[in-house]
Amino acid sequence: MLSFRYGDEGLKEHFDLHGWVLVDTLQDDDVRRLRAWIDDVASWPDTTDKWLHYRELTDDGPKLCRTENFTPFHRELKQLLTAGSVLATATQLLGEPAVLYKEKINYKLVGGAGYAPHQDAPAYPFIDSHISCMVAIDDSDTENGCLEVASSCFGEVLPMNDVGCIAEQVVATLTWTAAPVRAGQTLWFHSRTPHRSGPNNSSRDRRALYPTYNAASEGDLRDDYYRAKLEQMANHKVGSNVQVSLIGDFQGRPVE
Length: 256
Ligand SMILES: O=C(O)CCC(=O)C(=O)O
What we know:
Helices cover 24% and strands 24% of the residues. By secondary structure, the chain is an alpha+beta fold. The strands form two sheets. The chain has a seven-stranded antiparallel β-sheet with strand order 1-9-6-11-4-3-2.
């Protein structure tokens, strides 16, 4: 398991060395509020021109696996991700003012699928470098499909397979470490930090909020990102699983 880093001291130094850092972000009351906001979003109907819901087939039937582009439609979540301590930490880790690039909720409900080993950078067009974090909504551990990361390995984009994930022969050479994250903690990671996760074979949901940031000096690219994502996904299918990204990292079964 990762040897965690708590608090602010040496935060950026730790991130710069390992490509990830874990911080305590939310108190119990904040976690309760966050869960209510996530329930709001999950209850929204499917739409073609607002937020983006994605669903996967589990052994218990179809389940929501991801929502993206929800901050324009949820005031409190927008505030959480674009102001206050989360944005301040993104700014600290980037070493310059940060701006939100995209946001997603990965639900990984009971029976939900995992993610193949990948780096996020190939899925994030326009610029080379981003940072993301996983804000744990529920406790995330090895039973319900927590992240696993490869430390100190974020200098370059690694060779990829035909769906944009890390080539199998490279995956075997990396040292993978489980990264359990308690509800309210936040795991920050670079967009070239290799990561993967298993399915949720437990009886507990494993929901997590993932905002991604870039340096504001490189531009506010969020609208461009969602335009490019919708266009590319409409015209170019990657792999045979449910496609939630510009690469085929998600291993969920299609609902149809
Ligand atoms: O939520 C997970 O288990 C993994 C998420 C991930 O790697 C991604 O969305 O790129």
